[in-house]
Amino acid sequence: MKIKHIDLGERPVFLAPMEDVTDPAFRLMCKRFGADMVYTEFVSSDALVRSVNKTMQKLHICDEERPVAIQIYGREVEAMRDAALIAEEAGSDILDINFGCPVKKVAGKGAGSGMLQNVPKMLEITRAVADAVKIPVTVKTRLGWDADHKIIVELAEQLQDCGIAALTIHGRTRAQMYTGEADWTLIGEVKNNPRMHIPIIGNGDITSAEKAKEYFERYGVDAIMIGRGSIGRPWIFREVKHYLRTGELLPAESPEWYLNVLREEARESIARLDERRGIIHIRRHLAATPLFKGIPNFRDTRIAMLRTESVDELFRIFDTIQFTNE
What we know:
By secondary structure, the chain is of the alpha/beta class. About 45% of the residues lie in helices and about 15% in strands.
């Protein structure tokens, strides 16, 4: 599969852009475990244009994580065009437009999936961004605003006509947020539309190697994107890639092996931020990781782990964990 000139190999697997998750440390970790492309956290176009320091920091990428896409969001044509140029200058390989974020502070203001209620504006922004930059422009969006307005099949053609190089579809409406199951049937319909000639990337509920392979085969997508299934579990890319290549499940490692991955992620996060911010960032991964599921009487340990602001204390807590299969 190629996005313009960028060759991503056969059946590539991507790390989805996620706010407060896909910082450089986590992107590098996922890349090491086999992610074929990674995305930054979404970046506000308005904040980029105003050179807000915290937002500008999100543009930091390194060669080890390439190919990497910077994702921007906003609701104004001029700001989105200018932000795209800033992201291009920052060295992004691909510029991705977020038309999918469902949270109220974004969608409620008309950005993200809020654009699904204003398709003409969405298309105007897409065309302006695609015309402004030399790097490939892609879009990530949802099936539609709600169950009565699943517009993705027609919308996909319109976005393609604006000049995008690939389209990622999350198999939920905005109204669903992240509840229920992702519906991939319309993703498959877009992919099988003979008028579509750009790569279609499927997203939503990929939580296992078996599911990734099944959805590649059932819906014919060009790539799959993993989001929440990777939080606290960057090794999922290793598992998926192995299963796609061999048809066999990768044997499980020891609990200590997985714990060491989380240790390394914490160290990387702290090195790129500072101890307090790095620890705070890693909390979401520690809360979501499947590694600690099933450990009896783990509640107090979990609370302590998620409250500490010291890496030494965090690692001391790690050292006290007794895994049931050991």
